[in-house]
Amino acid sequence: MDTLKMQTRNMYDENFQKLSSLFPSAVTETMDENGHVVRAIDKDVLMQEISCAVVDGNDERYQFTWPDKKEAIQLANAPSSKTLRPCRHESVGRDGTPGGFDSENLYIEGDNLEVLKLLRETYLGQIKLIYIDPPYNTGKDFIYADNFTQSMAEYAQRSVPCDKDDSHLMENNESSGRFHTNWLNMMYPRLRLAKDLLTEDGLIFISIDDNEASNLKKICDEIFGDRNYVNQFVWVSNITGRQISGKGAAKTWESVFVYCKNSTACPSLTIDTTFAKQKMPDAYKGFRKVIRKDSLGAFAIGDTLYNHNRKFNEETRPNLVFSIFYHPETEEITTGEIGATLPGFVELPPHANGDGTHKYHAWRWSRQKIAKESYNLIVLPTSTGGYEIYTRIRNFSTTLLKDLVTNISNGDAEVQKLFDGKKYFDYPKSVDLLRLFMKSINDPSATILDFFSGSATTAHAVMQLNAEDGGNRKFILVQLPAATDAKSAAYQAGYPNICEIGKERIRRAGKKLKAESALSANDVDIGFRVFKCDSSNMLDIYYVPEENPQKSPDHLGDNIRADRTAEDLLFQVMLELGISLSAKIEDTEIAGKRVFRVADNLLMACFDTDVPEETIRAAAQQKPGYFVMRDSASGSMAAGVQQIFAACSPATVRKVL
Question: Which residues are within 8 A (CB) of 584 and not within 5 positions of it... i.e. 6 or more apart?
Answer without folding.
Answer: 102, 598, 599, 600
